[in-house]
Amino acid sequence: xxxxxxxxxxDVAYPPRKVIRDLTLRMSHAGIGCLLGPSGCGKTTLLRAxxxxxxxxxxxxxxxxxxxxxxxxxxxxxxxxxxxxxxDLALFPHLSVVDNIAFGLHDWKAAERRARVTxxxxxxxxxxxxxxxxxxxxxxxxxxxxxxRALAPRPRLLLLDEPFSNLDVTLRxxxxxxxxxxxxxxxxxxxxxxxxxxxxxxxxxEIGVLHQGRLLQWDSAYNLYHRPADRFVAxxxxxxxxxxxxxxxxxxxxxxxxxxxxxxxxxGCVAGERVEVLVRPxxxxxxxxxxxxxxxxxxxxxxAEFLYTLKLPSGARLLCLxxxxxxxxxxxxxxxxxxxxxxxMFRRGSGADG
Amino acid sequence: MxxxxxxxxxxxxxxxxxxxxxxxxGLWVATQRVHYEWRWERVPQYFAYRAEVPQESPVAxxxxxxxADGALSRVVxxxxxxxxxxxxxxxxxxxxxxxxxxxxxxxxxHYEWRIGPLTQGLWVTIWISFVSGLVGLLIGLITxxxxxxxxxxxxxxxxxxxxxxxxxxxxxxxFIFYFFIGTVLNLDRIVAGIGALALFVGAYIAEIIRAGIQxxxxxxxxxxxxxxxxxxxxxxxIVLPQAFKRVLPPLAGQxxxxxxxxxxxxxxxxxxxxxxxxxxxTASFATFEIWFTxxxxxxxxTSLLSQLLFWLERRFARSD
Lengths: 354, 320
Known about the structure:
The complex is a heterodimer of chains A (about 350) and B (about 325).
Chain A lengths: L4 E10 L2 E11 L4 E5 L6 H9 L6 E6 L2 E5 L2 E2 L7 E4 L11 H6 L7 H14 L15 H13 L5 E5 L7 H18 L2 E6 L2 H7 L2 E6 L2 E6 L1 H6 L4 H6 L4 E7 L5 E3 L2 E3 L2 E3 L8 E6 L4 E3 L6 E9 L3 E7 L5 E7 L9 E6 L3 E6 L7
Parallel strand pairs in A: 3-9, 3-10, 7-8, 8-9, 15-22
Antiparallel strand pairs in A: 1-2, 1-4, 4-5, 5-6, 10-11, 12-13, 12-16, 13-14, 16-22, 17-21, 18-19, 18-21, 19-20
Helix pairs in contact in A: 3-4, 5-6
Chain B lengths: L9 H24 L14 E9 L4 E9 L2 E8 L6 E5 L1 E2 L6 E2 L4 E10 L1 H31 L4 H15 L3 H15 L4 H26 L3 H9 L4 H31 L11 H12 L2 H30 L4
Antiparallel strand pairs in B: 1-7, 2-3, 2-6, 3-4, 5-7
């Protein structure tokens, strides 16, 4: 079966700087994905290359097996049937809501166009606002118009460039979920670009972590968190610290906190090597009976729980998530134990580019 | 925090009035010193006047009767060859009963309203400005698009044209257009005048349009392209309609300038408002009055235009 979207060995450059380097990504099925990365990692450039606004230096972009871009040749954006939803929405200010949505249907028959616009207005819940102009709508309503407009011509793929980032954090996840529902109902595939992992988790089935123009891992949210393939991914997704240790036999690592085992991803490390083990805050369990003690150096109240930063005797730091009734003062020494299910380790001193 | 004290405005209005009265008085004193005699009563006739039109008899014959009818008189001419009598209405009678009249002899005068040279000049100024503004808008639109084109030839030509026009005086351009291009292509002076003005204003409009197009965010273009519009359709349906709204104020200024600049075509003997003014002065010697009147007429036209464009701007602004 032909993969849905393929990006093969891409190089994209704003001379003299290469923004995207040797990037290969395969979305095997139509679905909803996300490119996640800090600002400046090249994710927007990649999205623009897929939409046809950036020429390639090297490599190839294919959608449903058909090549869209290669060096020296770029299929014009209007022939790609790829929708775009922007960070600044880019609604047409001189057109009403209806005309904005109908804009991509200019070559449809009038009756079909009307039916499609009505259907979309209903889908995004804006029937009453059909005749308004964009500046007469709230931010959330404008988002919906932008979504309806992008979906109207039934694109094969909808690209979303941080479309929720102008919204309140509390609205963001909700709207990301809402857009996801709309995409699923329309049967349209989506690719979101975001720097917000919670938005990504709420929106996408599969997530790619991008850093300095390279794709580090393309995986489910669960795997990115629990089986990060890379030091940067481990650091970027969720919280945690890397605890030094030495890899013994049977995939067990001896550390300051004793031997750690678990379902192991050894990251290519061999027995006897000096390694670092990823310890997430939820791997560190507060236990008054434990002989292991650590000093509280920072605490952040989060409602249901406290996030403690602990100092070990060696000076190494740990993060610990404890239910909020365990209220400890700074400087207090509390008992902890490790409860690591997925053991993730990296060779010490390796992958320092993270 | 204490409320900011707002001083009363009326003393300043008083000062304004005093300054204006002072200026007027100064003007009066100045004209007194050069012993200028104001003859404002000479001005109205140059807008419109009643012309004497001689009433000619269509037949040869004899004046058989003159009937008074209010201000009019009816001169009845009985043809010598025995045809039906002809009645000619006149306001001043120059014949008496029994006079023999030849064909095309005048029997008297009647009066007709005629448009004066100031009105004619004003009309010439208005339509020359209008036509050259329209042509200039077209030139400016095309040049503005070429200016931002990716094609080096188009872009180069546009830059060359804009720099040439903006770097040379309009008066010199009019002379070159009339004496050189006009002679080579055998152009009428009106065509040469309109051509020079249109080329001049086109260069400035091109820059206004370029700035307007570039002020539309790139996202608009990208949205339109990703919705299946070609580059041309995007320009026609998305970019230009929005850009037009933004360039309306600077365009208005440019058209107002054009009306004023059109006074320069008087140097190639086009009888516009300015040239009419000069001609009237040689006949009437009412130098100050005519120049003031000419200035006022320009002011009226430019104010009307700026009001019209202001109204247009407000209408378009509704969807912002």
